[in-house]
Amino acid sequence: MNPIRSIVAVLGGILLISVVVEVLEFTLVSARAGGAIIDLTGYFAIRNQPVMLAAKLVYNTLAAMLGGYMIAKVAGTREMLHGGVGALLQTAAFAWGFTVGEYAAFTPVWMRVVLVALTGPAMLAGASIRARAAGTSQSA
Q1: Which end of the chain is more exposed for a tag (fewer CB within 10 A), N or C?
Q2: pLDDT at 36 (0 to 100)
Q3: The pLDDT value given to residue 136
Q4: Averaged confidence pLDDT in the chain
Q5: What is the DSSP letter of 106?
Q6: Alpha helices (runs of H) in the chain, residue ranges in sequence order
Q7: What's the whole-model pTM score?
Q8: Cα–Cα distance measured from residue 93 to residue 119, given in angstroms and rounded to the nearest whole number
Q9: C-alpha closest to that of 82 among 73, 72, 92
């Protein structure tokens, strides 16, 4: 196991999740607004509509699965271990951001709880898919 490759895999997967989620969210909120949004209050007012929150659950979960898959693919070995490390780090980052982060108050509490609860398992599911595809479904 190459430690540099492991670090790149985990950090790259986490970065991928962030980029995918941010781009999708901004695109969907802008489309729903029908144009440019000029302030954060307007942005979150649209993002926190029920249909947008439902979409957020879907795209966050899919992005987490993709991130877990990519972590496992780039790592190339011990896919579930790498996916687990990525899931732990991403879940910890979400938990921190959703409790003391600058924008935590802009997301409903129930949504924060659900996102923290779903992210790790979704990342592990993505890593598991990759491990099975690679024929190495070991658990550690």
Answers
A1: C
A2: 81
A3: 58
A4: 93
A5: G
A6: 3-33, 40-47, 50-75, 79-100, 109-134
A7: 0.91
A8: 11
A9: 72
Residue 53 identity (one-letter amino acid): L
Rg of the chain over all Cα atoms, to the nearest angstrom: 16
User: Within a 10 A sphere around the Cβ of 55, how many other Cβ atoms?
Assistant: 17
Q: Residue 27 and residue 47: Cα distance in Å, rounded? A: 11
User: What gap in Å lies between CA 29 and CA 49, rounded to an integer?
Assistant: 10
The C-alpha angle 54, 117, 88, rounded to 5 degrees, equals: 130
Cα 34 to Cα 134: distance, rounded to the nearest angstrom: 44
3-state secondary structure at position 104? helix
Q: What is the pLDDT of residues 30-46, one digit of tens each?
A: 999 998 888 999 999 99
63, two tokens: 């992005």
